[in-house]
Design goal:
The chain is an alpha+beta fold and about 100 residues long. Helix content is about 20%, strand content about 25%. The longest helix is centred in the first third of the chain and has 11 residues. About 10% of the residues are buried.
Amino acid sequence: MGCHHGPVGEFRVLFTTSDYDRTVAWFTDVMGLTVLRSFEDGGRGTILLAADGQIEVFAHDAPGHPPAIGGVALAWQVDDADAEHRRLSQAGACLL
């Protein structure tokens, strides 16, 4: 039996940031995500592959960008949560 995804065809998490380059670097260098594409037409943005979903990072000053979102949380499934917590803490993440 196949996996039924329901009426939502795609799920993305969108971030707007005043530190675009540092945010993209965090997701690529620290979290190890792959850039699907980046663009500068109509504002700066990068789309990153995140497992079966995508994360989009937009420069805060991009025209027509979505409103800033507060209280965003992400979850990743990893083999060793303690080791990943240490790695992310050493990289400067503020983990709760």
